[in-house]
Design a protein that fits this description.
The chain is mainly α. The protein has a single domain, classed as MetI-like (MetI-like fold), CATH 1.10.3720. It is 80% helix and 0% strand. Helix 3 packs parallel to helix 6 and helix 8 runs parallel beside helix 9. The longest helix is centred in the first third of the chain and has 36 residues. The chain is globular, with a radius of gyration of 26 Å.
Length: 267
């Protein structure tokens, strides 16, 4: 046995991992530097920002509460309708694509690819862009906002449902297949009971998100409280702007509480 024992030096990361970490941090630093170079930040505007913010908040006070009953309330209700109908429409459209994108349920690769493209396209386009497209087609109003919310939500609901299906245990499905159950029976009795809790949670989460998104779609003419906010901003009616912002904040808090309570009692 040799008397000399090679000294071992403890290293937190192996050399290859050190190199990869260096490359990642270098890429992040380079991206930040390049962004700062091209974003053209004007220092004078940054120095003046606190003063301008204080001036705007001063113009918003006091809040014009009388404006809520005359204009904001109806627009706020329309916003909730847009979010709710858009979510329901998205569910109807997303379910087929969620079933098609799950590779363990749909064996056809062409259908998998088509569903994946549709879901990616839905998520890639922002809801404001969808709203602009539908405003150009259907004109200003709640119809454009509802369709914008629906088409934006298809990708989210379908993708989450498809991933949940792919992660399901195969035991119940194989038992139904061994018993000679049809594809529809396998979906209803095998997949749906396992998918139901996660799917309801996905729908509630998406409705909560849609309430927030539909509140600003009116800025591009897609109905809801955003149109009231846009009008007040264009006319420099700052107390009315404050009223709309307070109403949006309140409805977002209420929907958050409602979703939380439903999840506690149902899921």
């Amino acid at each position: 046995m040799s008397n000399s024992i090679a000294a071992r030096t403890w290293q937190r990361h192996p050399p290859l991992e050190k190199f990869l970490r260096f490359v990642v941090w270098f890429a992040i630093t380079l991206a930040v530097v390049q962004s700062l170079r091209h974003i053209e930040v004007i220092p004078e505007f940054l120095y003046d920002a606190p003063e301008q913010m204080g001036d705007m908040l001063g113009r918003m006070w006091p809040v014009e509460w009388a404006y809520y009953a005359s204009d904001v309330q109806a627009a706020l209700i329309e916003t909730l309708h847009i979010a709710t109908l858009g979510t329901l429409l998205a569910i109807l459209l997303a379910i087929p694509f969620g079933l098609m994108v799950a590779s363990n349920l749909t064996q056809n690769q062409a259908l998998n690819l088509i569903a994946r493209v549709v879901l990616v396209a839905s998520r890639s386009v922002n809801s404001l862009v969808w709203a602009l497209l539908f405003v150009a087609i259907f004109g200003p109003g709640a119809v454009a906002g509802t369709l914008a919310i629906a088409f934006r939500s298809i990708g989210f609901v379908g993708k989450m449902a498809g991933e949940t299906i792919e992660q399901m245990p195969r035991g119940p499905i194989e038992a139904l297949q061994a018993a000679g159950a049809s594809k529809a029976a396998q979906i209803w009795y095998g997949y749906w009971p396992q998918l139901k809790p996660a799917f309801l949670s996905i729908v509630l989460l998406r409705w909560d998100i849609n309430v927030r998104e539909s509140a600003v779609l009116g800025i591009v003419g897609a109905g809801g409280v955003g149109m009231v906010l846009d009008t007040a901003l264009n006319l420099f009616q700052w107390p009315r702007v404050a009223t709309v912002l307070v109403a949006i904040f309140a409805i977002v808090i209420v929907t958050e509480i409602v979703v939380t309570q439903i999840r506690k009692r149902v899921l």
